[in-house]
Structure formats: structure tokens, C-alpha cells
Design goal:
alpha+beta, three-stranded mixed sheet
């Protein structure tokens, strides 16, 4: 995971590049990745964030994900990374 801070006159932008562990990795590895992601989000709470990432995530057509994915989504089933990234996004958006 890497990031760069672009300082502007009116606001700062954080560009974050990340590659999440695949489902073959241990739960500890996945937990560690999302903890690191949350720490970066917490540290730069008042900055605009741009994510350039491969979260190895699939979000399906469940109603709970419609605010994030809209009415159309290709996968039939969500995976753990999809649920984790939506939960991280929702948690940080409500701050």
C-alpha cells in the first residue's frame, strides 16, 4: 500500500494505491490490510481521497449494496473483500 499527498491551495488530495489480499490469504493478512487502510483514512480524515486499488472485491445484487453499486451489478455473489470495503467506506463516510 502506498500513498501520496498532493497539497493544494484550497484542499489536499490523498492518492492511495493498494492491492488487497486474495481470498486465498489468511484472515490475519486480510485483517491487517484493512486495519492499515483504516489507519490511513483516519490519519487523513479531512482530506479528499482517491483510491487506485484492486480490492479483489465482488459486490452482488443484494439490496444492502445498492447505495454503493446502484441497481446493476454483474456478480451473482458477494465475496468477503467486497463486504469489507463497503463496510470500511460506510464507516468512514459517516464520520
Amino acid at each position: 500500500m502506498s500513498y501520496i499527498v498532493l497539497s493544494g491551495r484550497c484542499f489536499n488530495i490523498i492518492v492511495l494505491n493498494a492491492h488487497a489480499p486474495t481470498k486465498k490469504k489468511s484472515d490475519d493478512s486480510m485483517d491487517s490490510f484493512y486495519e492499515d487502510l483504516e489507519q490511513i483514512f483516519d490519519h487523513f480524515l479531512n482530506h479528499t481521497k482517491n483510491l487506485l486499488a484492486d480490492f479483489n472485491a465482488k459486490l452482488a445484487r443484494e439490496n444492502i449494496f445498492k447505495p454503493t453499486t446502484g441497481n446493476e451489478s454483474l456478480p451473482q455473489d458477494s465475496n468477503d473483500n467486497g463486504v469489507r470495503i463497503v463496510n470500511c467506506h460506510i464507516k468512514k463516510s459517516s464520520c
